[in-house]
């Protein structure tokens, strides 16, 4: 469920980001791409915790709780699960995919009403003339990098979705079969859920 929901979300985000980029709406395109990288981080993290179960570093029951939080978590209390902070997930994703956290941080600057999100994105200062010219500068500043970042997001997702996940899922299914009796006997044990 989680894997397919991420696929649909990422497809939607990338389609809309590309459409905005084609219409020279750089800020919206960038914010949607940033959300795409957040979505990409989810299956990367899922793959990591599946591997932890296989390596004996995470109990299967704790894995079940973590996947429930990934799928059903919220920040507004609309579900019973508190979502995991995306920065926590991105930090974990940065190990197997170095640079993803930095790229996300760069894209976050434009999403917030801070220096880049306001001053740099909408003004150009001419110090010698004591003038400030206001305009929408997003395409001028970042338009040439947008498609390359989209391609990076989509190609990484393709690898995570088509290459990494199926292999891990097959191993996890075999692991579950081999450990079925123990999993059944410990399913209500609070120590195995940690």
List the keywords:
194 residues, mainly alpha, two-stranded parallel sheet, two-stranded antiparallel ribbon, 4 strands, elongated
Average residue pLDDT: 93
Number of strands: 4
How does the helix and strand content classify structurally?
mainly alpha
Q: Which percent bin holds the helix content? A: over 70%
The share of residues in extended strands comes to 5-15%
Distance between the termini: 23 Å
The quaternary state of the protein chains shown equals single chain
Describe the sheet with the most strands.
Answer: 2 strands, parallel
Outline: elongated
Radius of gyration: 21 Å
Number of helices: 8
Arrangement of strands in the largest sheet? 1-2
Low-confidence stretches: none
Which series of helices and strands comes N to C? HHHEEHHHEEHH
Describe the structure.
The structure is a single chain. The chain has 194 residues and is mainly alpha-helical. The chain is built from eight helices and four strands, in the order αααββαααββαα. Helix content is 72%, strand content 6%. The protein has a two-stranded parallel sheet with strand order 1-2.
Could you give a short description of this structure?
The protein has 194 residues and is mainly alpha-helical. The chain has helices at residues 2-22, 26-54, 60-72, 86-93, 100-111, 115-122, 138-178, 180-186, and strands at residues 73-74, 81-82, 123-126, 131-134.
Structural topology:
Blueprint: H1 2-22, H2 26-54, H3 60-72, E1 73-74, E2 81-82, H4 86-93, H5 100-111, H6 115-122, E3 123-126, E4 131-134, H7 138-178, H8 180-186
Parallel strand pairs: 1-2
Antiparallel strand pairs: 3-4
Helix pairs in contact: 1-2, 1-7, 2-3, 2-4, 2-5, 2-7
């Amino acid at each position: 469920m989680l894997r397919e929901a991420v696929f649909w979300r990422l497809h939607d985000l990338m389609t809309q980001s590309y459409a905005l980029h084609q219409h020279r709406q750089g800020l919206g395109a960038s914010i949607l791409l940033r959300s795409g990288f957040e979505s990409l981080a989810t299956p990367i993290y899922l793959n990591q915790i599946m591997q932890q179960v296989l390596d004996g570093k995470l109990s299967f029951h704790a894995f079940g709780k973590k996947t429930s939080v990934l799928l059903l978590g919220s920040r507004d209390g609309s579900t019973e699960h508190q979502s995991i902070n995306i920065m926590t997930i991105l930090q974990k994703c940065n190990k197997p995919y170095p640079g993803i956290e930095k790229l996300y941080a760069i894209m976050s600057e434009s999403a917030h009403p801070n220096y880049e999100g306001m001053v740099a994105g909408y003004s150009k200062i001419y110090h010698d003339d004591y003038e400030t010219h206001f305009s929408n500068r997003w395409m001028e500043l970042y338009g040439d990098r947008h498609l390359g970042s989209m391609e990076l997001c989509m190609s990484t997702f393709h690898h995570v979705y088509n290459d990494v996940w199926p292999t891990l899922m097959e191993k996890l299914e075999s692991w579950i079969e081999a450990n079925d009796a123990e999993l059944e006997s410990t399913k209500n044990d609070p120590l195995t859920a940690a």
